[in-house]
Design a protein that fits this description.
The radius of gyration is 33 Å and the shape is rod-shaped. Strands 5, 6, 7, 8, 9, 10 and 11 form a seven-stranded antiparallel beta sheet that branches. It has a two-stranded antiparallel ribbon with strand order 1-2. It has two domains: 40-104, Antifreeze-like/N-acetylneuraminic acid synthase C-terminal domain (Type Iii Antifreeze Protein Isoform Hplc 12, Alpha-Beta Complex), CATH 3.90.1210.10; 113-233. 21% of the residues lie in helices and 33% in strands. It has helices at 3-37, 192-204; strands spanning 40-46, 61-67, 85-87, 102-104, 113-120, 134-141, 151-164, 168-173, 178-190, 207-212, 227-228. A hairpin with a 4-residue loop joins strand 8 and strand 9 (178-190). By secondary structure, the chain is of the alpha+beta class. It has two helices and eleven strands.
């Protein structure tokens, strides 16, 4: 073997060694990435905006995969978790679905009925009433021609809210004008007697208003506290 051939063999061996070193480097990088990223797991992303208090369905979400180590502890990994649940706030498109975004829809207790009424957005507690909240329901009645004073009554105390619908345009009419306004359908869980009271107030009261009760407090109203007239302040 002459010197030129020896140089060729040496260069060939060097090329092979360099190739092996490069391959080993690539494997090392891949192993390093895998060690940092880890295995992938299933998660779910919101397709389109979901309004608050909307019942959740599987079609509102898309399945994705992401590294387990980057997945929040609250992430929903099984869509069975949304059964019987509603959105507690607005779910933005593209957001990762997490368990703290959803709550169980409140259920009826034995002896209760569902009743839904439209509450004027201006006279309700706008944006603060959510499923599970407790409210007092007030109704105001105009005075009669015989001289009876106008009254404000607590129709139902400590009413439990089951559901809050979407803001809906309505038309409010009186003897002199018709003005557009907006109302929210709110569903309550009430006894038969309280259901009748609310139905009566919605039909005959001038206004029906809600007062949000602080969480953890359910004060009992004395009989004399249910009705208010202006002459009580004299």
């Amino acid at each position: 073997m002459n010197s030129r051939q020896r140089r060729g063999v040496i260069l060939l061996l060097l090329s092979v060694l360099c190739a092996l070193a490069a391959f080993a480097g690539v494997l090392s990088v891949i192993d390093d990435v895998n060690s940092k990223v880890g295995p992938e797991v299933t998660a779910y992303r919101i397709k389109d905006r979901v309004a608050p208090y909307t019942p959740l369905k599987a079609g509102q979400f898309e399945k994705i995969s992401m590294p387990e180590r980057w997945l929040p502890a609250t992430a929903v990994t099984d869509l069975d978790q949304i059964n019987g649940k509603i959105a507690v706030t607005t779910l933005a498109s593209g957001s990762l679905l997490q368990s703290d975004m959803i709550v169980a829809r409140p259920a009826l207790q034995p002896g209760q009925q569902e009743i839904a009424i439209m509450i004027d957005a201006a006279t309700g507690v706008a944006g603060k009433i959510t499923p599970g909240a407790t409210v007092n329901i007030y109704a105001t009645f105009a005075g009669e021609k015989g001289g009876q004073a106008a009254q404000s009554k607590v129709i139902v105390s400590n009413a439990r809210v089951l559901d809050v619908g979407e803001l809906t345009p309505i038309s409010q009419r009186n003897d002199r004008t018709s003005r557009p306004t907006e109302a929210v359908p709110i569903t309550f869980a009430l006894s038969t007697v309280d259901t009748q009271r609310v139905a009566y107030a919605e039909s005959f009261a001038e206004h029906v208003r809600l007062a949000l009760v602080a969480p953890g407090s359910e004060p009992t109203l004395a009989p004399g506290d249910r009705t208010y007239t202006l002459d009580k302040d004299k």
